[in-house]
Amino acid sequence: MQDWPWEVADSEHLDDYLQLYARAADAERVVIMEMLLQAATEQPNPEKLRLAWVKVEALLNQNPHLHASTAQYWCIWGYKEQDLDVYGFSVSPYVRAWWRANYPVPNDWTE
Prior knowledge:
Layout: H1 4-8, H2 14-23, H3 26-41, H4 46-62, H5 68-75, H6 84-87, H7 92-102
Helix pairs in contact: 2-3, 3-4, 5-7
């Protein structure tokens, strides 16, 4: 399936995915990062999302160029910030902040 990393990701297994990431090669890390972002998005409340994000962000900071295209997707730049609760992912505001700290936002992207 095209989106299998998102379909199999489970918010309760975030720490398992972090352990897999630590042992994985770069090609595998790209897929595991997608699972981590989906697991973070599915956290049951804002505080758990924030705690999950701290862990995910640390990995993004270790390999920003490896995960740039993945992060770009999760930013959902086609929508304004106030529309992310409808059209984006709960983790999108965090990913956008990370993106802005690491890359310029092209003028044709909506913020």
